[in-house]
Design a protein that fits this description.
The protein has 326 residues and is α/β, with parallel strands linked by helices. The chain folds into two domains: 217 residues, Rossmann fold; 93 residues, Alpha-Beta Plaits, CATH 3.30.70. It is 33% helix and 25% strand. The strands form three sheets. The chain has a six-stranded mixed sheet with strand order 5-6-7-3-8-9, sandwiched between helices. Strand 11 and strand 12 form a beta hairpin. The radius of gyration is 23 Å and the shape is globular.
């Protein structure tokens, strides 16, 4: 397991530290997520844990700080950013070089290539890999020395939904075998779907430390996903209807012809569309982003403006529980 105590980065001139007295645990056999908006301090916390950045506090990996572990790569597998390596080197050659550095047999390179589904690309150059294949290679590098603990900084960033599901399946399998998994993300839905425990960070501080089920129940909110060629008209009608009824409904205009409706139901939205002759191509319940009480003031009754696309993602993502530097 990982035990982090009082991790604090050095001050940045007149700015507060990027990480400020961060303490948490990541237990073996479980997937733990550090959740926070970009700039909240997540990456700084990982660097402090791994002794890559100066500061205060300490992190223990199965009872020992990293500098007291004889072979760190065999205890902790780390992926911070893209896979470092010469773009002209082959995938297999890169892994074999890392085998030599880690003191593990070269056959291990082929074993991890098979584990991450890169056997057919073993002779590809690093510079030619897609984002998804680069992430697979990164995980292969992390697994090379068969470490007990995996520490990954936003490993699903830029991946398709399918690649993301594959990645999280691999992390879950590692935890199921008794390993410890810690990764960061800025996406609360990714955290809710894939974690056992969610540690939420905001402005360098831990603001919540919850089981994933509690996190989903208390910090995510349901929404109705709507797709209609008349999305703007429907948004205006839903807004007017909510204000008239003094209901706390929020309508957010997404890209194209999509709406996200918070505080309503499929039945209510569907009935409004039907009464006004509006064609609807999609009407479905979803889990949305952080809801009222998760960082911002509660919405006023009937507030539901047709916000511009992406407004939902710009809402305060976290409440007294929030984020770090990602």
């Amino acid at each position: 397991m990982i035990e982090a105590y009082g991790l604090t980065s050095n001050s940045r001139k007149e700015l507060p530290p990027a990480a400020d007295d961060v303490s948490f645990q990541a237990r073996a056999g479980r997937v733990t997520v550090l959740l926070g908006a970009p700039g909240a301090g997540k990456s700084t916390v990982l660097r402090l844990m791994l002794e890559l950045q100066q500061g205060r506090g300490i992190a223990y990996f199965r009872g020992r700080p990293l500098h007291r572990i004889a072979h760190p790569s065999r205890e902790v597998g780390v992926l911070l950013g893209d896979v470092p390596g010469h773009p002209a080197r082959t995938v297999r050659g890169h892994l074999r070089m890392l085998c030599a550095a880690a003191g593990v047999p070269v056959r291990r390179a082929d074993e991890v290539l098979e584990a991450v589904g890169l056997v057919s690309l073993r002779e590809e150059r690093l510079g030619s890999l897609s984002r998804g294949m680069d992430r697979r290679l990164g995980l292969a590098c992390v697994l090379l020395a068969d470490p007990h603990t995996l520490v990954l900084d936003d490993p699903a960033d830029g991946l398709s939904a399918r690649e993301g599901d594959w990645l999280h399946g691999m992390l879950r399998a590692h935890a199921a075998q008794g390993g410890t998994v810690l990764f960061t993300t800025a996406d609360p839905k990714e955290a809710a779907r894939n974690a056992d425990r969610v540690v939420t960070l905001d402005q360098g501080r831990v603001v919540a430390d919850q089981e994933a089920a509690d996190f989903s129940r208390t910090r995510l909110r349901p929404r109705v996903a709507v797709r209609s060629p008349h999305a703007a008209r429907l948004a205006a009608l839903l807004t007017k209807q909510a204000r008239t009824a003094h209901r706390s409904v929020e309508v957010v205009r997404e890209d194209g012809n999509r709406l996200s409706v918070y505080g309503s139901t499929c039945a209510d939205v569907g009935e409004t569309a039907f009464r006004h002759g509006i064609v609807v191509h999609q009407l479905a319940d979803e889990i949305g982003d952080m809801g009222p009480g998760a960082g911002g003031a509660p919405a006023a009754p009937g507030l539901s403006g047709a916000a511009p696309a992406g407004a939902a993602r710009r809402r305060p993502a976290l409440s007294p529980p929030a984020a770090l530097d990602g």
